[in-house]
Design goal:
Elements lengths: L5 H19 L1 H7 L3 E3 L14 E2 L5 E4 L2 E4 L11 E2 L9 E9 L8 E6 L1 H4 L7 E9 L2 E7 L6 E7 L10 E8 L4 E11 L2 E12 L10 E5 L6 E10 L11 E6 L13 E5 L7
Antiparallel strand pairs: 1-15, 2-5, 3-4, 4-15, 5-14, 6-11, 6-15, 7-8, 7-14, 8-9, 9-10, 11-12, 12-13, 16-17
Amino acid sequence: MNKPSFADVRSWRNRMRRLVVGVGLLCAAAVAHANLSDDFQRADGAALGNGWIEKTPAAFSIQSGAVAKVAAGNGYLDNLVYRPAVEDVRDVEASVELRLLAASPGYPQIHVRIQSAGAALVGWLDSYILYVDGDNTRAVLGRQRGSAFVAPLATITIAPALNTADTFRLRLRAVGTSPVQLAAFVERLAGGSWQVIGQAAVNDLAPDRITAAGAVGFSGYIETAYRYDNFVRTNLTSPPPTDPTPQLASLAPHSATIGSTATTVTIRGSNFPSSSV
């Protein structure tokens, strides 16, 4: 059997080092999926792409780098656009920018804690929702359960009123389980920064409050007079303590014969997480 070359040994040691470093990144990877930012800068088309689930594909489309409300045939329960269940987050904040194309705003809305198990069912939705209530000066924070109309938890006065000239943002936060702490904001972009023009905070202790992790998303009613842009999801769950970067002190054996039987590799160093040994 041929003696391994220096290049073979070096390649083997490099692979071992990459393996060790990878262990230290596992904890960070566990929560990395929880944050999302989508500017919708994709080609015009009916499909939103980027992993979005469209309950009614005809309800929205991408137009000029934004999401346009285009179909008028379904209600808000079935116009839902949301993220896959694998991305579910319990303590979360979601926001989306809003541009009105007509004086009447309709019912643009954002959702958190969407329960994916029932989200695909026609006429059914479980989520917390912040929506403009068909009026330029009013929004509602509510709890949506099943097929019943949303239960209002707070009415928000918007001042100054929504208009077709400015960019606005809907922002909704849900934290905890008992109570579920909800915070809702309507904001206007002014001078390069976001100005709160309406807000509400509610502690939901109702028996049918939504305590499980869920998806985030947006929807609308039958109107076609607005566009969404720059959707952001932020994980508010406290991350686990960050382990220090592992430090490799020694690796034994330093080499192995190609084609030999299994070899026990001994790695010595510091700052290895307990789950890696």
